[in-house]
Design a protein that fits this description.
- Helix 7 (about 170-175) links the parallel strand 5 and strand 6.
- Helix 1 (about 5-20) packs antiparallel against helix 2, helix 6 (about 135-155) packs across helix 7 and helix 8 runs parallel beside helix 9 (about 230-245).
- This protein starts with a helix and ends with a helix.
- It has about 260 residues and is α/β, with parallel strands linked by helices.
- It folds into two domains: about 5-45, no CATH class; about 55-260, TIM Barrel.
- About 45% of the residues lie in helices and about 10% in strands.
- The longest helix is centred in the N-terminal third of the chain and has 19 residues, at about 30-45.
- Zinc ion binds near residues 124 and 128.
Length: about 260
C-alpha cells in the first residue's frame, strides 16, 4: 500500500527523534513542536475527508461544469424519507442516499423505492456507532454489515461508502483497504442535521454558496429513529428550485464522478 501523507508525517517525526538520539542529543522543544504538528495533522487526517488523509475520498468534482450532486444521509426512515422522495420526484431530480444498514434491514421496501425512482444508494455503515471504528475488527463489521444489508435488500452491493460523521480512523482505513468501495465525503455541508434554524433561510444560504462540482450533504432522516428532525426535507424544495435557477444540473454521484474523471 502506498504511503499516504499521515504515515509520512509520523515516519518523518520518528526519524527526527531517532536522529537526535543517534547523535546523543535529547529531543527538546523543536521536537515537541514537531510532535504537536504531527498530532494535529493526524486529527485533521481523521476528521476531514477532503484532507485525503488515511483514505482517498471523493468530495468534489473540480471542473465539473454546472453540475451538483445532492446527497442524503442517515435514512431510510418511513417518517421522513417519503417526503424527500416526493419532492425529488416532483422536480425530476435524482439524488444519492447513504443509508444505514440497520434501517435498511427494518425498511427494505423503502430502499427498493429509492432505487425504483432512479436514485443511487450507497452505504453509510450499519448503525452510526462511532465506537465501532476504533478497532479494525469493529470497523470491518460496521462496513461489512452495511454492505450486506444493501445486498439483501437490492441484490447488488453498493459502490459508494460515506463514513459516519465523515471520520476515517486508521482502523477504518485498514478495514476499507480490503473493501471494494469508493469513499465519498462532501464539499458543502448544509448543517441541516441539528434541526435548528429556519429552513428557507438555510436553503437560501446553500443556494448562494454552492459551486459547480459540489457534493451537498443533507439528511433525509434523524440519526436515531424518532430523534431530532433534520431540516433537509423542509428545505429541499427551495434548495432544488434555487440551484436550478442558478443554472445547475442536479445529478447522481456516479455522473459527477464520471465527469470529474473525464
Ligand atoms: Zn450520518
Amino acid at each position: 500500500m502506498r504511503m499516504r501523507w499521515p504515515q509520512a508525517l509520523v515516519a518523518a517525526m520518528l526519524a527526527w527523534v531517532a536522529a537526535d538520539l543517534l547523535v546523543g542529543r535529547l529531543p527538546g522543544w523543536p521536537e515537541a513542536a514537531g510532535l504537536a504538528v504531527m498530532f494535529g495533522g493526524l486529527a485533521l487526517a481523521a476528521m476531514r475527508l477532503s484532507a485525503q488523509g488515511f483514505v482517498k475520498a471523493f468530495c468534489r468534482a473540480a471542473g465539473a461544469r454546472a453540475r451538483i450532486a445532492l446527497t442524503f444521509d442517515d435514512g431510510p426512515d418511513p417518517a421522513t424519507t417519503p417526503q424527500v422522495l416526493d419532492v425529488l420526484r416532483r422536480h425530476g431530480v435524482r439524488a444519492t442516499f447513504f443509508v444505514l444498514g440497520a434501517k435498511v434491514d427494518a425498511h427494505p421496501q423503502l430502499v427498493a423505492r429509492l432505487r425504483e425512482q432512479g436514485h443511487e444508494v450507497g452505504t453509510h455503515g450499519y448503525d452510526h456507532d462511532w465506537r465501532s471504528v476504533l478497532t479494525v475488527a469493529g470497523a470491518r463489521r460496521q462496513v461489512q454489515r452495511g454492505v450486506d444489508s444493501l445486498l439483501r435488500a437490492l441484490g447488488v452491493p453498493p459502490v459508494f461508502f460515506r463514513p459516519p460523521y465523515g471520520v476515517v480512523t486508521p482502523a477504518l482505513a485498514v478495514a476499507l483497504a480490503g473493501a471494494r468501495l469508493q469513499v465519498v465525503g462532501w464539499s458543502l455541508r448544509t448543517r441541516d442535521g441539528t434541526g435548528r434554524g429556519e429552513p428557507l433561510a438555510r436553503a437560501q444560504w446553500v443556494v448562494r454558496v454552492a459551486r459547480a462540482g459540489d457534493v451537498i450533504l443533507m439528511h433525509d432522516a434523524p440519526r436515531e429513529p424518532g430523534g431530532r428532525m433534520p431540516l433537509g426535507p423542509a428545505m429541499l424544495e427551495s434548495v432544488i428550485v434555487g440551484l436550478k435557477d442558478r443554472g445547475f444540473e442536479l445529478v447522481v454521484l456516479s455522473d459527477l464522478l464520471a465527469r470529474a474523471a473525464a
